[in-house]
């Protein structure tokens, strides 16, 4: 899950659910390695999912 908050009004400004398979979330098919929190660069948020995908989100809209 990716969530961003507006600090001024304390509301969620961006929310993204990568729709990871429930078996992956339970840890049975979890890819190994250090968890990543993502990276913000050139107006995009790059996030690695638990099932091994790399997703780029628009930092303002949350669009994939």
Describe the structure.
The chain is mainly beta. The protein has one domain (2-58). 6% of the residues lie in helices and 38% in strands. It is built from 1 helix and 5 strands. It has one helix at 22-25, and strands at 2-6, 11-16, 39-41, 44-48, 54-58. The strands form 2 sheets. It has a 3-stranded antiparallel beta sheet with strand order 3-4-5, with no helix packed on it. It is globular. The model has no long low-confidence stretch (mean pLDDT 79).
Distance between the termini: 13 Å
Structural class: mainly beta
Helix count equals 1
Rg over C-alpha atoms, rounded to the nearest angstrom: 13 Å
Q: Which sequence of strands runs across the widest sheet? A: 3-4-5
Strand content: 35-45%
| Outline | globular
**What's the domain count?**
1
Q: Report the strand count.
A: 5
**Mean pLDDT value:** 79
């Amino acid at each position: 899950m990716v969530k961003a908050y507006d600090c001024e009004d304390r509301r969620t400004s961006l929310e993204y659910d990568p729709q990871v398979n429930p078996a992956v979330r339970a840890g049975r098919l979890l890819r190994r390695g250090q968890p990543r929190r993502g990276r913000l660069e050139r107006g995009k948020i790059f996030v690695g999912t638990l099932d091994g995908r790399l997703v780029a989100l628009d930092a303002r809209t949350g669009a994939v």
